[in-house]
Amino acid sequence: MKASIRMKIFLPVTVILIAFPLAVWLMFRYTLDGHMNYNAKRDLELTISRVEKVLHENNPASAAEVIGDEEDSETLLSLLKDELQSEGIETRMMAVSGGYRVLYPVNFDERPEMSEFYPMFLTKATGDEEFWEQGRILEETIGAGKYLLYYRQLEHGDPDHVKHLVLYTPIYDTSMILDQMSQFVLLIMVVITAIAIVLFWFVAGSISGPLIRLSEAARGIGEKKFKKVETGATVKELLQLEYEINQMQEKLAQADQAERTFFQNASHELRTPLMSISGYAQGIQYGVFEDTAQAAGIILDESTRLTEVVDGILTLTRMDQLRYQVVPVEMNIESFVEERLELLEGFAFSQSKKLVFEPGTEHKMIVDAMLLERAFSNVVSNCIRYAKMQVTVAVEIQEECVRIVIRDDGPGIPQEEVTRIFDRFHKGKNGNHGLGLAIAKASLEYMGGTIYAESAPDGAIFVIELPHDCRSFAPEELV
Question: 3-state class of 389 per DSSP?
Fold first, then answer.
């Protein structure tokens, strides 16, 4: 079963919130035990070094000479006691004579652990059990407590004088401290965890909620229900996604409206010549027209117009779907423009207009000849229809691109139509079917170029800009 994004965020965080304090608690417990052992060992080692120093300084010849004298033995014991009474020393000492009498501490009441410690010493020293190894720090459990101890045996002397030294340091049991703290700490952990879980539940909701609304918006887009979505998100990435989806919806709504308008205009442009063709055909069929040649001529003209409209729609559709096959070739742009103008001379002559070419320097570029010819011919034909006397074409070679400037001396373009003349089926006063400039724009953009129009006091200006090499802008190479 798939989990929601809210649960995907909430569950791991909840596990971490519960597991992390427990892990910290366990780590603290074992670290505290280790710390107590370390402190006890350090304390014992410091005491051992002091005791060994005292023994060395007061035993220049042999231990027998030192402890064989009662006064010297008492002096040694006094020095050892002084070392143990230093500030911060936790290590304790038990001094036992050769006859196994405790010389220090004198009063067992001062050391409650001695009631268990001393019998254990006697058992090991006089019994069959393995005795403590000298010169090593050992860990022993004595009664209910744990101790680190160090055993040192002096040379044989009088049975009433010091023979056995045992230094021991208690290892404090942290379980009692931890048990006392457990309830209090556990309560704090539960409260903090509960608060954190609630907070993360709302934090996860602040992410999953906007995503759910964005998902609903995406579903609406699939059903062509374009409605601005407001998620109330507070996360930067979600706000960016919300903005992009709203932008996409706006563009899709515009595209959908443009598509509706396109089909409405296309159906109108197709219906008009079809109605004319059908009407004149029926007139010829039923003998309505005496001059059938004139009717046939109108049918032929309308059929040509219908063919142009259909061809234009198919061309635009292929470009919209990126299915037009670009065939880039190297050509001399000056020669190309001159040849295209020669082909348009007949149309210009029929309109009593003149074409003027202002050549520049020869320049070779790589471009799709068919697309450029269609765009160039459509723009020049449009200018011929609106010009009074002549249309001027100039080629400008620039560092970034090649510019083809086409001017006419007509009435110019109304300011409100400058940005609309390239829309599909937008027709001016003398326009044909409103696809010529739209096809020109689509053809140029297909090759990475552009076209724009300007209105001047003495006519209209169209500027075509193309990169020197159009291959890198071919849509199939960009996929």
Answer: coil
Q: How many CA atoms lie within 13 A of 30 on its CB side?
A: 5
Phi-psi region of 4 (alpha: psi -120 to 50; beta: other; left: phi over 0): beta
Arithmetic mean of pLDDT, 197-202:
78
Which domains are delineated in the chain?
5-177 (3.30.450), 249-320 (1.10.287.130), 328-478 (3.30.565.10)
Inter-residue contact 379 to 406 (CB < 8 Å): yes
What is the C-alpha to C-alpha distance for residues 137 and 135, in angstroms, rounded to an integer? 7
Supply the pLDDT for residue 479: 41
**Cβ atoms of 215 and 241 closer than 8 Å:** no
How is residue 367 written in tokens? 């471009």
Distance CA 113, CA 115 (A): 5
Report pLDDT digits (tens) over 79-105. Answer: 888 877 776 788 888 888 888 888 888
Distance between CA atoms of residues 425 and 261, nearest Å: 9
pLDDT tens figures, 315-354? 666 666 566 677 888 999 999 999 989 888 888 888 888 9
Reference 55, options 78, 72, 80; nearest CA is 80
- Classify strands 162-171 and 92-97 as parallel, antiparallel or unpaired: antiparallel
Would strands 354-358 and 328-332 be described as parallel, antiparallel, or unpaired?
A: unpaired
Q: Judge whether 103 and 121 are in contact, CB under 8 Å.
A: no
Sheet holding 137-142, edge to edge: 102-104, 92-97, 162-171, 145-153, 137-142
Dihedral, CA atoms, 35, 38, 39, 44, nearest 10 degrees? 160
Angle, alpha carbons 446-326-253 (nearest 5°): 35
Axis-axis angle for helices 236-285, 174-222 (nearest 10) = 10
Distance CA 359, CA 124 (A): 120
The DSSP code for 86 is S
287-291-297-298 Cα dihedral, nearest 10 degrees = -60
The whole-chain average pLDDT of the chain stands at: 78
Which pLDDT belongs to residue 391? 92
Sign of the torsion angle spanned by Cα atoms 359, 360, 363, 368:
negative
Determine the distance from the C-alpha atom of residue 260 to the mean position of all C-alpha atoms in its chain, rounded to a whole number: 38
Q: pLDDT over 90 for what percent of the chain? A: 5
**Which residue in 81, 80, 94, 83 sits closest to 149, CA to CA?**
94
> What does the chain come to in residues?
479
Single-letter amino acid code for the residue at 127: G
Are 404 and 383 spatial neighbours (Cβ–Cβ below 8 Å)? no
Has residue 251 got a pLDDT over 70? yes
pTM over 0.85: no
CB 303 within 8 A of CB 277: yes
How far apart CA 467 and CA 401 sit, in angstroms, is 5
Look at the block and give the residue holding tokens 């409605």: 227
